Amino acid sequence: MLQTLLPNRGLNRTRLTIFIQDYHDQILELAALLDVRVVVQTMAVDRQSAKISMNMKNAIRTSFELFPDADKMIVLEDDLYVSPDFISYFAQTAPLLDEDVTLYCVSAWNDNSYRHSSKDPALLYRTSYFPGLGWMMKKSVLMGEMMPAWKADWKDWDWDMWFRTEVVSLYRECIIPDVSRTYHFAYLGGHVYSFLQLQYFSDKSLNTLPDVELYNVSSMTYPNYRRAMYEMIQKNLRLPPGKVYYRTCFDMFPVTEDPEERKKTYVIIFEMKHAYDRAAIQNVLTCLGLWDTDVRGEHQGTWRFHINGNPVMAVGAPYSEYAESVMGAIGISPVFDFKQYSLTRTRRPGSNGENPKVVTFGVPDEEYEDDYNSKMFTYDHDSDYNAASMVE
Q: Would you say 143 and 37 are in contact if contact means Cβ atoms under 8 Å apart?
């Protein structure tokens, strides 16, 4: 982590502090060699999750004691590489936390930012899910809201899961990048093991470009982002090709040679009746090789990412704020019926960043025996086209 962080332009090394649990001679020697401050915090607790959580609490409190003039804090865990524009990314987005009370964090991490599902390092999104893995919050939130409410007993909780509760978020959102600014490299940790690292972290994206200028950062404030979403829906949407039998979910979003078409966002609509109706979107995420151990990356019932280089918006209807506008803009009602199926993940990350192997689909034809239990989705195209794609 230090090897990638220290060369970052704009880093003030005097404001960098390493917080460790108990004494580790090698870490102390390394920090002395690199001239980086270390704070050792010994804790009389046995549970690993409790030690990590209390270490985080002490790190936050001690940091603002060391730097009382600081109004924000960036937190990094030791199992993350960072991008060469890590400091620049946070410097550009920091004003958003002052301008918009509907935000409570900026994160360098996007849970759905894989090499096959992200494209533009200058693009930002909003999400109601706290991503962690390299994040920034204001002093007023951390010290004024979280310190007084920090849990005394962490037997069944981790600090990051607590951060994600509505009691803490107060329905505020976080800023995330299309292409992540951190990369998780550890194969062993409190909640990570080698198979999980291979399946879910190994082919994550990481920006490698220095000095990326983010697009129109002020458009990330809630009124501006909401307005931009509606403008995109009214002027810049396209549907997956209507008369294609899809063998995989990736085929719904074919590569487009026309540069003007590539600027338009593909939209799919799936059933989502309320905020906790997650079965359909979880199957969509599985099918597209994204994060699916739980559902992350949502903004108002929508998810955004790239597939085959195309921008994609997945909209949950009727729950999403944008569902009615999307349905009106596209003029038809294609609802992908993913909800009733629990797809099995067979994802195999591609070493070269290609689309991973995921669930494949068969096609309905005269030789295929129809089975109601295999029905994946229906696509009604003005009554001119009505096909059911089958799980293979």
A: no
State the amino acid at position 13 in one-letter form. Answer: R
DSSP 8-state class, residue 68: T
Closest CA to 297 of 50, 84, 114: 114
**Runs of H (alpha helix) within 131-207:** 139-141, 147-149, 159-163, 166-169, 194-196
Return d(Cα 106, Cα 104) in angstroms, integer. Answer: 7
Domain boundary among 178, 200, 220: 220
62: left (phi over 0), alpha (psi -120 to 50) or beta: alpha
Q: How many domains does the chain have?
A: 2
Q: Hey, what are 164's tokens?
A: 């994600």
Same domain, 269 and 285: yes
Strands (E), 42-102: 72-75, 80-82
| CA nearest neighbour of 186 among 103, 81, 45 | 81
Contact 267, 325 (CB under 8 A): no
Quote the tokens at residue 189.
């940790």
Instruction: Give residue-wise pLDDT tens across range 41-99.
Output: 876 666 766 778 888 888 999 999 999 999 999 999 998 999 999 999 999 999 999 99
Residues 62 and 192 placed together within one structural domain of the fold? yes
